[in-house]
Amino acid sequence: MIRSLIAFVLTVIAAAPAFAAEATTSPATVSTFKKIIDWILEAIVKYSFQALGGMVVLMAGWFVAKFAAEFVRKFLDKHKIDVTVAKFMVGTLKLVIMGFAVLIALGKFGIEIAPFIAGLSVIGFGTSFAL
To answer: What is the residue extent of each domain of the chain?
Structure first.
């Protein structure tokens, strides 16, 4: 995605002097301009659904985190758990759920998430040996 964006910017920069130098519209200029417009429309169609999917995942993660935190907070209040411990547990739960939602959204945006997951497993492995 970044490579295609850089290629687009370079194409526009390369085509800009041709647009400015010619007062009349030549067939080559129209063809180049048409190719740029086609490329922009193709990129919008191709990546808009990825962006929309990522935003939907983030919003769903936010709602799930909010619902789960409220449920756990009520459960802990009902069982008379200390307020400090309850706030810590609710905050941690929200953070974990939103962390997973962000990872899934990054995958929807087209970013490779396998290294992040491998890093999390290394952190978990190291933590298990530390305890």
So the answer is: 2-130
